[in-house]
UniProtKB/TrEMBL annotation, chain A:
The protein's name in its UniProt record: succinate dehydrogenase
Source organism superkingdom: Bacteria
A Pfam family per the record: Fer2_3
Residue spans of biased composition, Basic and acidic residues class: 7-19
Key words of the record: 2Fe-2S, 3Fe-4S, 4Fe-4S, Iron, Iron-sulfur, Metal-binding, Oxidoreductase, Tricarboxylic acid cycle
Residues spanning the membrane: none
From TrEMBL, chain B:
Residue ranges of the TM segments: 15-36, 56-77, 98-122
Family: Belongs to the cytochrome b560 family.
Cofactor: heme
GO BP terms in the entry: tricarboxylic acid cycle
Major subcellular site: membrane
Keyword annotations of the record: Heme, Iron, Membrane, Metal-binding, Transmembrane, Transmembrane helix
Provenance organism: Nesterenkonia sandarakina
Protein name: Succinate dehydrogenase subunit C
Domain of life: Bacteria
């Protein structure tokens, strides 16, 4: 029961795609892909590799990466699983912004310039576009991302009104792709900061009427490295592929910490 | 392989206002440090104070003062914006509009200040 939020209108295509009569050929175009490569087995330095490939109007950045990996250079390394914006595996920096490669259509980018693909920032790069996600999940575990309810289990479900469910609806959408946390300048320089994703997932339980451990989570986040590190930079809100109002959620947790202590 | 370094993260209004807030904040801190030192010279001797304060009476400092006021005005208005983002429940949704308001107020304030400031200066240091 997600809220009917207004979807942003689809951006106008940057490529002139001829109207193809039913069943006609899909228009194709050339794109140049620049990928930041890193392989510690060969060099300690990262480098840029460039390929020019022919792609179609229906293709996404992930399809371009697939084409390179499957047809040109099998050593190109990246994560992807579902390839449909649900699993959150393929967050990467595309033209300087964190995006899911499976959700960015090539035709929506400026293909007159190379498309720059880099690993997400702030987490140690292991190879090419793969980063070590452990610090990210460490913060996630610390906010206790599970329901805690001390009252005896009822025979049926725990009843919740639509209004109570609505309170934390936005933050239930998180897919833990780390696009928000790795877009945060505070997180880049201070790896101890919990980061937006952990706070979003704490928000999901703090404002759940069925949960009893909100105070414990607020305690965890009322830390030098907790919610107060947020400088309201809004990169996280811009990066979230699920459209979660991340900064808004963090601000609500901040205010909950304040009102609780008063 | 045209570039060897990684690219700059393409943050939007929120990121650049934060960068501006940081830079102006650090700049104002250093000004205040110098300002406390030169003002406290009056305890050493009024002559030393006059000599040091006299050093401000030079065209480069006139331009510097415009920069200083510009930094303070931005830091002040943007600080109010951040307070609204923190405490107004709708603040996070209108942070962009609030930033444009901050920039508008900054331009108006700076036009007023710069005109008055330069008039005093061109008046042959009359007001200084």
């Amino acid at each position: 029961m997600s809220t009917p939020t207004k979807e942003a209108a689809e951006p106008a295509s940057k490529i002139d795609m001829k109207e193809s009569g039913g069943g006609g050929e899909i228009p194709s175009f050339d794109v140049t892909l620049q990928v930041r490569r890193y392989d510690p087995e060969f060099s300690d330095d990262a480098r840029w590799d460039e390929w020019t490939i022919t792609m179609y109007g229906t293709d996404r950045v992930l399809d371009a990466l697939h084409k390179v990996k499957w047809e040109i250079d099998g050593s190109l390394t990246f994560r992807r699983s579902c390839a449909h914006g649900v699993c959150g595996s393929d967050a990467m920096r595309i033209n300087g912004r964190n995006r899911l490669a499976c959700k960015v259509l090539l035709k929506d980018l400026d293909t007159s310039k190379p498309i720059m693909v880099e690993p997400i920032k702030g987490l140690p790069v292991e190879k090419d576009l793969i980063v070590d996600m452990e610090p990210f999940f460490q913060s996630y575990r610390e906010i206790m991302p599970f329901m805690v309810n001390n009252s005896p289990a009822p025979t049926g479900e725990r009843i919740q009104s639509p209004e109570e469910r609505e309170r934390f609806d936005d933050t239930t959408k998180c897919i833990l792709c780390a696009a928000c946390t790795s877009s945060c300048p505070v997180f880049w320089t201070d790896g101890q900061y919990f980061g937006p994703a952990a706070i979003v997932n704490a928000h999901r339980f703090i404002f759940d009427s069925r949960d009893d451990a909100g105070d414990m989570r607020l305690e965890v986040l009322n830390d030098k490295e907790g919610v107060w590190r947020c400088r309201t930079i809004f990169n996280c809100t811009d990066a979230c592929p699920r459209g979660i109002e991340v900064t808004k959620a963090i601000q609500e947790v901040k205010r909950a910490v304040l009102t609780r202590s008063m | 392989m045209t570039q060897t370094k990684g690219t700059l993260y393409k943050g939007r209004e929120g990121m650049w206002s934060w960068v501006g807030h940081r830079i102006t904040g650090v700049g104002i801190f250093f000004f205040l440090l110098v300002h406390v030192l030169d003002t406290s010279l009056v305890r050493v001797s009024p002559e030393a104070y006059n000599a040091v304060i006299g050093a401000y009476k030079n065209p480069i400092m006139i331009v510097g003062e415009i920069g200083l006021v510009g930094a303070i005005v931005f830091h002040a208005f943007n600080g109010l914006r951040i307070i609204l983002v923190d405490f107004w429940s709708q603040g996070t949704r209108y942070h962009r509009q609030m930033l444009w308001t901050v920039m508008g107020l900054w331009v108006i304030t700076m036009i007023g200040f710069t005109v008055r400031h330069l008039m005093l200066f061109l008046d042959g240091w009359g007001g200084f």
